[in-house]
Amino acid sequence: MAYKVPIGISNKHLHLSEQALAALFGEGYKLTPYKELVQPGQYAAHEQVDIIGPKGSFKNIRIIGPTRPQTQVEVSLTDARALGIEPPVRESGKLQGSPGVRLVGPKGEVELESGAIVALRHIHLSPEQAREAGLQDKDLVDVKTSGKRPLIFEDVLIRSGEGHFREFHIDTDEANAAGIANNDEAEIIRKKN
Amino acid sequence: MAYKVPIGISNKHLHLSEQALAALFGEGYKLTPYKELVQPGQYAAHEQVDIIGPKGSFKNIRIIGPTRPQTQVEVSLTDARALGIEPPVRESGKLQGSPGVRLVGPKGEVELESGAIVALRHIHLSPEQAREAGLQDKDLVDVKTSGKRPLIFEDVLIRSGEGHFREFHIDTDEANAAGIANNDEAEIIRKKN
User: Fold this and answer.
1) Could you say which of B20, B51, B101, B187 has the lowest number of CB atoms within 10 Å?
2) Residue A119 main-chain phi, psi, to 5 deg
3) What are phi and psi of B19, to 5 degrees?
4) How far apart are alpha carbons A96 and A103 in whole angstroms?
5) Which residues pair with B152 in a beta bridge?
6) Is the ipTM of this complex over 0.85?
7) Is residue B152 packed enough to be buried (19+ CB in 10 Å), middle (13-18) or exposed (0-12)?
8) Cβ–Cβ below 8 Å for A121 and B149
9) Using omega within 30 degrees of 0 as the cis cutoff, is the peptide bond preceding B6 cis?
10) Among B67, B52, B48, which residue's Cα sits nearest to residue B110?
11) Average pLDDT, integer, range A61-67
12) Three-state SS string across B60-129, please?
């Protein structure tokens, strides 16, 4: 097979619960969309917070809206080293046993007990795109990039359903290792399972 | 084919010319070996310098000895962004047109006109190891890693000759993308050319 997918590079960012949003920005606060993302309904918010780890910190980290049931902080392994935490490589939402960090907003702070992960690379496909590619949710595929440092990413997770749209999500370490930029194309070269 | 190679992860570091060593540490100064490296005759030196770019800087960056004909600064693309430079992905020694940085040592400073590169990933093999693997200097191979985030690195350069010993050199971005640690093993799975 050979199915092309645009690449979306995730810089460090976070998703907030309603409760964390209220603690950081004040009771009843609503996020302001700054830029729509490729995934339907999701947006980079105008709002930013600081992330504090035991060793280092990052200022002005972008919040991705809308709010979610759990607060989740997504960093690269490079970022994790700077913060002084050891987050697992995980699917979004699977936060059990992950390390916490401190979040600092304009109106308050939140000390997370868990929630920091390195996002497991994955491909979003709409139900129709998945049919077109002969794939379904939870399939694993090998994906080839053609940047200055060509790579094959093995065992990339397919996530398909309503609310998904064709995009290969990797983090900044993976993008740098492949020598690629946002909107470069990758190619699904085989299905694994 | 399936030939195993231990992985050596290069953090940012630099090689100094005799002239730069004298300017940074004083006339007649000699590097002090701190730790021997896998490549015969090479060592991490006790000495460190600061690297200053147009946007950011790094303190206490390790010098690799012995001195070389040209000063060369090796950083990851993540480091390059923090410094505010755009170095090419290059073989060691091929510095033409690469950006410069400022080096600050205990006895002086050096403003490099060029010399900063992102090292092109490569495998060192002794002449005997190359024969054993059926490879020779300048061959390109595909290399598979088996960390938490399995990858195939395509078109990896073989460097063989006296002064080389079996080791797959990648930078911190590549190591993080593959989820591997120093001394993990990679496998050469095919020859390309």
Assistant:
1) B187
2) -65, 130
3) -65, -45
4) 19
5) A152, B144
6) no
7) buried
8) yes
9) no
10) B52
11) 97
12) EEEEEECCCCCCEEECCHHHHHHHCCCCCEECCCCCCCCCCCEEECCCCEEECCCCEEEECCEEEECHHH
Residues on chain B touching A178 (C-beta within 8 angstroms): 177
Verify cis geometry, omega within 30 degrees of 0, for the bond prior to A66: yes
- Residue A100: Cβ within 10 Å count: 18
Which DSSP helix (H) or strand (E) runs through B193? none
Which amino acid is residue B92, in one-letter code?
Answer: S
pLDDT tens per residue, range B25-70: 999 999 999 999 999 999 999 999 999 999 999 999 999 999 999 9
What percent of chain B is predicted at pLDDT more than 90? 95
Q: Do A151 and B151 touch (CB under 8 A)?
A: yes
User: In 3D, which of B9, B13, B11 has the Cα closest to residue B72?
Assistant: B13
Contact criterion met (CB < 8 Å) for B89 and A149 = yes
pLDDT at B193 over 80: no
From the CA of A98, how many Å to the nearest CA of chain B? 16
Q: Specify whether the CB–CB gap between A65 and A48 falls below 8 A.
A: no
Distance CA A106, CA B77 (A): 32
3-state secondary structure at position A101: coil
Dihedrals phi, psi of B141, to nearest 5 degrees: -135, 160
Long-range contacts of A138-142 (CB under 8 A, 24+ apart): A139/A191, A139/A192, A139/A193, A140/A191, A140/A192, A140/A193, A141/A188, A141/A189, A141/A190, A141/A191, A141/A192, A142/A188, A142/A189, A142/A190, A142/A192, A142/B152
Which residue matches tokens 């000063």? B71
Question: Alpha-carbon distance A105 to A68, whole Å?
Answer: 18
The H-or-E segment that residue A83 falls in is helix A77-83
Which token pair is A71? 């607060």
Residue B93 near residue B101, CB atoms below 8 Å? no
